[in-house]
């Protein structure tokens, strides 16, 4: 089993940056693909990006491609989401998830964190 705890959210001005962290506990972390999702008020949960268990492959939503970077440090049991050039439309609760892959289907992820709020002001 894997437990996930997100941190690093907060209030930031448009154009600024944040780095979200997802700390995992559990001995199988290094073999899980990881994904980041977000959910804004009144909107459905959407995929942000994913990273393979080795860290060698990443996959991003078009809305964040070129601005954000997902990475992982298996030695630290941590996955990161570096968020640059933030826009007001990025405001949402951000969730990390662990699963057998790293794609956009939320149903493919087995474990979820509780979420961290990111608010971007213009």
Task: Briefly summarize what is shown.
This protein has 122 residues and is an all-beta fold.
Please describe the structure with a list of short key phrases separated by commas or semicolons.
single chain; 122 residues; four-stranded antiparallel sheet; 0% helix; globular
Over the alpha carbons, how many angstroms does the gyration radius reach?
A: 13 Å
Largest sheet: 7 strands, mixed
Tell me roughly what share of residues is in helical segments.
under 10%
What order do the SSEs take from the amino end to the carboxyl end, as H and E? EEEEEEEEEEE
Portion in beta strands: over 45%
Structural class by SSE content: mainly beta
According to DSSP, the number of beta strands is 11
Q: How would you state the average pLDDT, rounded?
A: 93
Low-confidence stretches: none
User: What's the N-to-C terminus distance?
Assistant: 40 Å
- Total of helices: 0
Which word captures the global form?
globular
SSE order and pairing:
Layout: E1 3-7, E2 10-13, E3 18-25, E4 33-39, E5 46-51, E6 58-60, E7 68-73, E8 78-83, E9 92-99, E10 109-112, E11 116-121
Parallel strand pairs: 2-11
Antiparallel strand pairs: 1-3, 3-8, 4-5, 4-9, 5-6, 7-8, 9-10, 9-11
Protein architecture, described:
- By secondary structure, the chain is mainly β.
- 0% of the residues lie in helices and 52% in strands.
- The protein has no helices and eleven strands.
- The chain has strands at 3-7, 10-13, 18-25, 33-39, 46-51, 58-60, 68-73, 78-83, 92-99, 109-112, 116-121.
- The strands form two sheets. Strands 2, 4, 5, 6, 9, 10 and 11 form a seven-stranded mixed beta sheet that branches. A four-stranded antiparallel beta sheet has the order 1-3-8-7, with no helix packed on it.
- A hairpin with a 6-residue loop joins strand 4 (33-39) and strand 5.
- The radius of gyration is 13 Å and the shape is globular.
